[in-house]
Write a structure and sequence with these properties.
The protein is built from six helices and two strands. β1 and β2 form a beta hairpin. The chain is about 80% helix and about 0% strand. It has a domain of about 190 residues. The chain has a two-stranded antiparallel sheet. α1 packs across α2 and α1 crosses α5.
Length: about 280
Amino acid sequence: MLYNIGMVDFLNNLTTWILYFFIYAIVGWVFESTYCSIKAKPPHFINRGFLFGPLCPIYGAGLVAVAFFLQPFGDLPPFQKFLAIAAICSIIEYFASLVMEKLYHVRWWSYKNSWYNITLNGRISLMTSIGFGIGGLLVLDYIHPNVEAFVGSLTFGIKMAISVSCIILFMIDNYMSNAAASSVKHALKGGKVDLTDEIKRYAFNYYRNQTRKTRRLARKILKTMKAAQKRAIKELKGTQKRIMKHTAKIEYLTKKHEVKKEIAKVDMETIPRKTEKMKKYKK
């Protein structure tokens, strides 16, 4: 009984953190896509991130890590909390950039083009680290308590259902995005600038091309089936003609044979009569 209660408590706590991750991943995607869409020239919608869906997992991971490690130290001075948040988020961003570049041989983001910015291999920068620190501080002090209250108001069953559904969709999206990104590493290999937009565009085109290939394959199969059907009908008609031709020939030969039999029968009947007449004539 105690074991079951302990397991339920563990799962309840686990689903709570899973929901935190997905909530902040969605919030991060909204922020990142909005910022980049406004910044683009001309302004247009940009779907940022590695995934096709409205998620930026790096934001989810960063804010969950911040909440997990710093929430117990709620009495830290704001400046120390700011430095800790900036450090945690920068470490996550650096290693996320490094791992993704090693996997796909493509630079997903880079801060090297910012002349006013201090960067570390273009993977993290001073300005973004400051931004993460300020943003994380605001989230931890003002937004997270509301998110915590909302998630806490959900029953264990609802949290479990939402968590499982989100994980399944997340895994499907990861699989599709990984398949598309694996094809990108050959087309955009070795890039050292921010290629997120190009990668996303290439990934979408990858699946569009896959759809086109499927349609072309279906049309090709249909065309082949129609051609085979026409050949079959043509061969059937030819076979019917040959059968009719052979049938007519057989009927002709049969009738010819019957006529010959009739002639032979008539000859057999008339020969004795002629023989009698010839005998009478000799006498």
